[in-house]
């Protein structure tokens, strides 16, 4: 009987050794490479070369490096938005819908505020987007705080409702009168985000994203409200016992989260598209959940994770363009990498022990 | 002849050694105590014997034959039965059905036949129980008897009892001991896990003392005194604290509960017109068997459960329905019952210490980290908390967690202190520390409400004792008049004294 048992077992340890930390990203890349290499071979290309284009090439030219930063902007914002909620134990899966709420506000304000100079119009647009995202987040937040309705379900369903609202707007009153396409009229030039570097797509939204990261760090580590949010997120009962108003803290965190997701929508409208369109967001709201989780719900982690996702987004395009492989190969690799990363973060808390 | 021999058993959990080369030998027909503080490794050793854990190394012999016990099923086949504090009974079924459950192999269940065979077994082992009774209607003591009968019915020759008296009132303990005496005469061997010295000396033949996972020694009970056993258990002379007999002279009421009622989580009434007064400089102990509304009483006073009727007053000021932070400001010191739930485990010691008083460490919404650090360092020193300020709370031992909570509450010099089960699960030195702190607060003039299921603790600390039974205060008496027997009668709901 005894001999038949597998000779090794996993034992949980609370703290992974320090030397493991820098090793983990490398292990993630290596494992993902091993898993995906087979599929890449079936596309009849060299996996090493494919990985070069995927991870290294985007960093080697200025154009693609800036593109990486552009892709990271909405991810930073939704990542920060989700982190505020998750850190408080409020599982906001609705950043996608809140982003579109902000985008609707931006598309509207972008026309209404056309007469104002940029230094007034742009801040007003950001505030408007924040409030729109907040308003859209208010309904599930109130349902949670007042009636204990599960927010995962409601915030997720609110995304579908928002998708239909956007579709109704674009196919109805906001349909472009000139082209007849389902997109809103172009916003006024004075409300467009200016470029940080001429002749690139890198726009003012990157600054907004950095500010959001800084705000996240400051609120979470330096303010009493940040400590209250973390206390509620990590131990509701204890927080309540210590005199923290759990309902109010949750509500405010949910609204901040929705507001920042709304700013992501503003940034995409005013920085990239200049219209409201149906596929304004490439699932940035959902990716924000992944980024917040991989970033360990802290500001620096969220920043690094959004840059990394910007990199593999850019890399997926580079590799398909350079080697003529289908773009889905890039998406496949992204998905595998995500699963491997989540697995690694789980497994780092275990060690392998030989049975005696 | 040794019926069970455990030789050099070692078991680790991560970095903790729960059993370190433990040797344990059980004679046929003896009651053998496993004595030790919480965390000494008693329960781990017995879970290994019952197949719930697998030892990392060591040999188990049953009737001189080396055996490998993979599961409780193996253990039962070897004639080993275990009764834990958490009963595995199905409440809507009868006693007989519970006893044969999982043991009867025939497809058709003949009700009369199983009732007869269970009644026969009960007679043989001298266990007084009606096989037709529905388990739901039984008291805790009777349920325990069903568990014992269940093990015996499966032909157990070795019976492991894990702290069997923890849930019993004194009269039920006496009945249990009679049963054990009877089983011994039948030739059964009993392993009695306990940390209560007077029970061990009363009922057992031999004692094996464990400390920090190691065997300190095995002795004949007749050869040792309680003091010697206590010394083996903790490595020093126990017992730490005693209440100075200075009765509070000024009878100034500080905490008053007036006809307090509350519902439990299922919205059923659980507190029924509780009226109590705690005076300045006294400890009022609430005795009672677990689950009679103690938890809800503490929660209601602490502001985390809303009363359905009645009033709570602190120094004449009505604080009913106030939020926890308002209660703290009103001078109510609240120690949570479950220290794991009462602290945010993933926050640091420092953060937990200031969590209740954040306003004082905040300027315009920004935390004053310097003042917080200073305050936390001071309290860590003053309350002898063995931790660094930035350690995550979950890495602390139970005793140090409790010290964090005491520091948070007592440093404020509260007028009232609510202390539900303040020493549950703590080792002797931490227990002494907590009790000493409560007595010092009493000397300072605080009004202390001590809720405890440990009758020894209630008797050692309280000036007056109130007994709670099914959510009602069934009697209040001065400590001097309280005997274990009198309290036992009140705790069992048999009598009321008003």
Query: SS-based structural class of chain B?
Result: alpha/beta
Q: Quick one: which chains have the greatest interface? A: A-B, 27 and 37 residues
- Based on Cα principal axes, name the global outline of chain A: globular
Helix coverage percent of chain A = 55-70%
Instruction: Give the helix level of chain B as a range of percent.
Output: 25-40%
The N- to C-terminal Cα distance of chain A equals: 14 Å
Give the overall shape of chain B, derived from the CA principal axes.
globular
Proportion of β residues of chain B?
25-35%
Oligomer type: heterodimer
What's the main sheet of chain B like?
A: 6 strands, mixed
Mean pLDDT of chain A: 90
Low-pLDDT stretches of chain B = none
Number of domain units of chain A: 2
Descriptors:
heterodimer, A: 356 residues, mainly alpha, ABC transporter involved in vitamin B12 uptake, BtuC, two-stranded antiparallel sheet, 2 strands, 70% helix, 3% strand, B: 498 residues, alpha/beta, Rossmann fold, 2 domains, 22 strands, globular
Give your account of this protein's structure.
The complex is a heterodimer of chains A (356) and B (498). Chain A is 70% helix and 3% strand. Chain A has helices at residues 23-42, 47-60, 62-87, 95-112, 118-147, 151-171, 205-222, 224-234, 236-241, 246-273, 284-294, 299-323, 328-347; strands spanning 8-12, 350-354. Chain A is globular and about 75 Å long. With 498 residues, chain B is α/β, with parallel strands linked by helices. Chain B has two domains: 2-234, Rossmann fold; 253-491, Rossmann fold. Chain B has helices spanning 42-49, 72-77, 95-100, 111-124, 140-153, 170-185, 197-203, 226-234, 294-301, 324-329, 339-342, 349-354, 369-382, 398-410, 428-444, 455-461, 484-491; strands at 2-13, 16-27, 31-35, 57-62, 65-67, 80-83, 158-162, 189-194, 206-211, 214-220, 253-263, 269-279, 283-287, 309-314, 317-318, 332-334, 362-363, 366-367, 416-420, 447-451, 464-469, 472-478. In chain B, helix 14 (398-410) packs parallel to helix 15. The A-B interface holds A 1-2, 11-14, 222-228, 230-231, 234-235, 237-245, 356 and B 14-15, 56-57, 68, 70, 302, 304, 323-328, 334, 336, 341-347, 351-352, 355-356, 358-359, 361-362, 365-367, 369, 394-395.
